[in-house]
Amino acid sequence: MSSSPSKKLRPLQLAAIIFLTVSGGPYGLEPLLTYAGKGGALLLLLITPLLWDIPTIATVLELNSMMPVTGGYYQWVKKALGLRWAFYEGWWTWLYTFVDLAIYPVLFITYASFFFPEAVAYKVPVCLVIIWSAAALNIMGIVPVGKTSLFLGFIVLIPFLVLFGTAFFQHTIHFQVPAMSLKGLGISSVGMALYTIMWNFIGWDNTTTYAEEVDKPVRSYLTSVIIAFAVILAVYFVTVFLAQQSGIDLTQLSNEGFPALGVHIGGYWLGVLIAFGGMASALGLYSAVLLSVSRVPQVMAGDHLLPSIVHRLHPKFKTPYISIIICSIIVSGLVWWSFEDLLIVDVTLYGAGLFLEFVTLLVLRKKAPYQNRPFKIPLKMPGLCLMILLPLTVYGIALAGAFLSSGEAGTTALFAIAALLSAEVIWQLICRRKAFTEKKLLQ
């Protein structure tokens, strides 16, 4: 499914889509200070991206430079580990993205309730409007999504730039260098803090599934990822730092979100601006993530792992419209879950798929050492293994924290693990169907 050069994404559009796929602004980070406290929030916010994101980004860039193709990570895993593990990768990512997509309409309601408190009562119909509007936009093609992402990206960033300027130039906050420490935090608190940060930094690999629709993909991805990562980290750090220094009640921040911080620092007008940005963030994230996930089932159907109808392209726009519609139907049934439950399931499923991508990196270094890699991590096998241990350790601590939590987090994590195991069940059904079909043809 290639596009003509005039209809391919340019680096700035790609950077906007990556920003909205991975981040969409600091919206969703509000519980971090409650979980990690003022001493631990900034420390974890600095450490986690280095341990969790840098190895992931480097892996994605190397593999994508080898194979900048539609389907991205699914195709990488298939080349290195075979069709079975590629199915696992596609299935896990599909499940994770359903959950991820369901988060954004819920966040939209959270920020819309700043203007209309009664919006919570209309959660389901509002969420359905968002889901199907984004489906229509995605069916129209990647360039409309790219242009919309660029527009929404500016709307997301502007309120926080105004927040930063208001805080610094009005001198309403007395800034002090914070004491950064995890002292006194239990493993469950650290675990939930990590889940919060990890969720706000996931999705780098998702942005590769439409690489054939990007102009000069290797160079464009390298440039766009660097821009997106720098912007995301800077916006997150400054926002959490301001929240920490402002003296706002952390429970209020967690319950009411960053619009409450805007009201605290600049007044109601700034709260309105940030709430409006939160609504734009939810819309942009949803549309950008739907763009990435819709390409994976299309490619899986091409390998006869899903019904062939999923592979069908729209006659006019040449987009995988059946895949987009299926995704939208499933997400429509998940919008009643709570934000915390969705977050745990989301990151747990994502981490499993990411593990297969790390294994793929190692296997391809061994199986195809001389294949062209325009971007190559400057490490040999022992260094790569140590690099991969960093995000896996962060993932393990977060998962342990969920299981040791006194609330429902442990049950939610068990549900996520059961969802991972469903891949083997579905694979066996596929194998039996294939064997039955072959037997029938021989008769």
Task: Please outline the helices and strands.
Blueprint: H1 11-22, H2 32-66, H3 73-81, H4 83-112, H5 123-139, H6 142-169, H7 187-199, H8 217-246, H9 250-256, H10 258-266, H11 268-302, H12 321-332, H13 339-367, H14 381-403, H15 409-442
Helix pairs in contact: 1-6, 1-8, 1-11, 2-7, 2-8, 2-13, 2-14, 3-4, 3-13, 4-5, 4-11, 4-12, 4-13, 4-15, 5-11, 5-12, 6-8, 6-11, 7-13, 7-14, 9-10, 10-11, 11-12, 13-14, 13-15, 14-15
Write structural notes for this entry.
Helix 5 (123-139) packs across helix 11 (268-302). The radius of gyration is 21 Å and the shape is globular. It starts with 10 loop residues before the first helix and ends with a helix. With 443 residues, it is mostly helical. It has helices spanning 11-22, 32-66, 73-81, 83-112, 123-139, 142-169, 187-199, 217-246, 250-256, 258-266, 268-302, 321-332, 339-367, 381-403, 409-442. The relative contact order is 0.20. The protein has a single domain, classed as Amino acid/polyamine transporter I, CATH 1.20.1740. The chain contains 15 helices and no strands.
